[in-house]
Every structure is written in C-alpha cells, then in structure tokens.
Design a protein that fits this description.
rRNA processing, Rossmann fold, PIN_dom, 5 strands, 6 helices
C-alpha cells in the first residue's frame, strides 16, 4: 500500500492581516474614517437627470406616421413561426404606413444562422425593407439597436428577445413591438 495523496483544499489563500490590526506600527495603520455631522437645516441637493420633452409621445414629433420600425432577428423568426406577413401585420397593428428598417448587424446575424433560416434571410432581403448601414465596431445586433435607438428617438423596436426588451425599456420614449399569442 502506497501513500495516500492529500487533496488540496479549493481556493486556499494566505490570510492577510487587516490594516487596523494592533500588530502594525502606528504610522502604517489605516485611519478610521471620520463622519461629518449633517446639518438638518441645510438644503439637500439631489441630481435628477433631465429628459428632453421629445421623449414623451405627446410632444415627440419624430415618432409619427410613417413609422420607422427597427426589426430584430428573432422578430423575423417568430413571425415565420406564427405565419404572419411581417409588413401587413405591422400596418394592422399601428393603423398606419410602416417603414421596416434592418441594420447591417441584424442582416449579418441572420446570415450567420445558416441554411435553416434561409426563409428569414429571404424576408430580410425584401426590397420593402430599408437597409441601415452600421459604422461601429463588432456585429452584435442588440448593442447596435440600443445604440441607434438612443441616438435617434424616431424608431419603434420590433423584438421578441426578453433581454433586449429589458434594455430598451430603460431608455425613455422608445416603443417596443413584439409578437404574443400569434399576433
């Protein structure tokens, strides 16, 4: 019988002494932070970010018919699964003319999906869709859409992605279009 190997403990690290330890010399010791007493009669200031009035639908003149709709990859895929005509269902939803916009990043994302999503690629290459060129680094479509919506408040974002919807809801004044219950 050989020696039994002793297993090393996971994430073992050397213990460090605190800077407040009494073994450390007085000049090297960390000083305890001194709290300032607040004056109850002093005026309290707080900074609230001011949003421009164009972000609110009542005043946003950019957001009107014909609506510019930024389409995401999964929105096209879900519309195929739900057997919806993309252009017609958008017009039925908004009761107005819609201009479907697709960025280069979304187009690249659909092309990367391969042969399985060739129907989605054919829909995305439809001449009724307006192509928007991208000038940023990388091809991550979600970041591209969020950046474009932040800069220009004239778009409606069409997506089914929960994470992207959560990010866009943080930007005030940007409407979201999504597919639920095959509508």
């Amino acid at each position: 019988q050989g020696k039994q190997k002793k297993a090393r403990k996971y994430a073992v690290m050397k213990r460090m002494i605190s800077l407040r330890d009494e073994r450390i010399k007085e000049k090297d010791r960390a000083k305890a932070p001194v709290k300032k007493k607040e004056d109850p009669s002093a005026i309290k200031e707080r900074e609230v970010p001011q949003h421009p009035s164009c972000l609110f639908f009542q005043y946003n003149t950019q957001l009107g018919p014909p609506y510019h709709i930024l389409v995401d990859t999964n929105f096209i895929n879900f519309s195929i699964k739900a057997k919806l005509d993309l252009v017609q269902s958008m017009m039925d939803c908004l009761y107005a003319k819609c201009i479907q916009c697709i960025t280069d990043c979304v187009m690249g994302e659909i092309e990367k999906l391969g042969q399985k999503y060739r129907v989605a690629l054919r829909i995305a290459k439809d001449p009724r869709f307006e192509r928007l060129p991208c000038m940023h680094k990388g091809t991550y479509a979600d970041d591209c859409l969020v950046q474009r919506v932040t800069q220009h408040k004239c778009y409606i974002v069409a997506t089914v992605d929960k994470e992207l919807k959560r990010r866009i809801r943080k930007i005030p004044g940007v409407p979201i279009m999504y597919i639920s219950r095959h509508r």
